[in-house]
Design brief:
heterodimer; A: about 220 residues; six-stranded antiparallel sheet; elongated; B: about 190 residues; Rna Polymerase Sigma Factor, Chain: A; 8 helices
Chain lengths: ~220, ~190
Amino acid sequence: MTHPMPLFPDPAAGAPAFHPDEEFLLDYAAGTTSQTETLLLAAHMAYCDSCRRAVQAARNVGGMLLSTLEPAQLPPNMLNRTLTAIDSAVGRVDTVTDTIVPPLAAFLAENMAAKQWKTLPNGFRMRRIAGESSGRAWLFDAPPGMKLLPHRHKGDEWTVILSGVFLDGGHAYHPGDFARLEDGEEHRPKIGVKSRCVSLIMVRDTPTYTTPLGKLAAPFIKL
Amino acid sequence: MPEPLFSPSPSFEDLIVAIGARQDRTAFAALFAHFAPRVKAYLVRTGSDSSGADELTQEVMLLVWRKAERYDPAQANAATWIFTIARNKRIDKFRRDRHLDFDPDDPTLSPEPERLPDHRLEAAQEARRLSQAITILPEEQASLLKLAFYEGKSHSVIAAEVGLPLGTVKSRLRLALARLRAHLGEDK
C-alpha cells in the first residue's frame, strides 16, 4: 500500500479552530521553544494566519526590548572587520545561512515517503521524526475509524492534524488544528471514519496504557 | 521630547532600505553604530561569552547586509527585523542539529498572509507606539517579558526560576500581550 503525503498545508483547509496557547507563541518568538515544539508550532502556523500574526506581534516586543538594551562594548575595529567580510563575500551567490532551511513541507514529505515505519496489523503506522529529551515527535498515519487505546501521558501531548479527522475529548480536529492534552489527562482518541488521518504528535514521555489490552500492546507501540 | 515635523535623519527602516537598494555603506555604518552594540548585549544576556558574542554580532550584521534587499518595512520595523535575525543566529549557534529549524514565514509553505489595514501601520510609528506601551505595563508583567526576551527563558523555565505558579506566569504574559495589542489598536 502506498501512502502519499497529504498536501501540506492542505489548500482546502479552513482557518484552524484549535490553537496553541499564546505563551507558547511568545516562547516561539523569543526563540526558547525546543526543536520539537518548534516543529509542531511551525506546522500549525503554516495553516494559521492569526497565530503567525501573534508571533509577529511578539517579535515586535523583542525588537522593542532590543532597542532598550544597554549597549555593550564592541572591539574598536568591528565595523571595519564587518565591512571587510562583506567585501570578501561580494559576488558570491546568495549563501545566506540564516535558519531558513528545508521547508517544512519537504521535510514532512520526505518522512512520509521513508521506508522505515512501525506498522501494526490494523494498518496503523508511526514514524519517529525528531526528538530530544524534552519531547519526541512522531508522524502517525492511522486508518479510518481506528480507536486508539486509552492512555495517559506524563507531561503534555501536542498534536497537529495534517489530514483527515481526529476525534478526541468531544472535539473534532481537522487539518491545521492544534490539540494539546495536559499533563496526566487520560484520553482515547478516534479517527474519523471517512479517511486516513495523518498527524504530527509530540510526547514528553512514554504514555501509560490504562486497560489490560493496552498494557499488553504497550511494548509494541512504544513511543 | 516633541516630535519633529520633518525627520532630520533617516529612520532605521530607511537605512535598511538604502543598504538593500544601493549597498549604501554610510547607511550600514549608521545602522551598525546603533544596533551592533545592542545585538551583542542581547547575545551576552542569552548566554554567549564576550568574544563569542562579538563573532556572532558580526555574523548578524553581515546577514543584515545580505538580507537588506528583501526587507519590507511594511512587514516589520527595523528593530524587530534585526531582533529576529539575532534570535535565529543564537538558536543556530546552540543547536547541534540544524535541519529541524523551520521558518513559518517561508513563502513556500505559508498561505499568503492576509494584509489587514491595521498591519500596514507605518513601521517606525508602530515601533514608537510599542515602546510607549511597554512603559505602561505593570512591573510584574514587564519583568516576565524581559526574562523571556533578554534571558532567553521559556515561560515554564521562568515559572520554575521565579518561583511563581505556572498559571500565574501564563496569565501575566497573556495580560501583557493583550495590553500591548490594545495599545497598538489591534484588538478592535
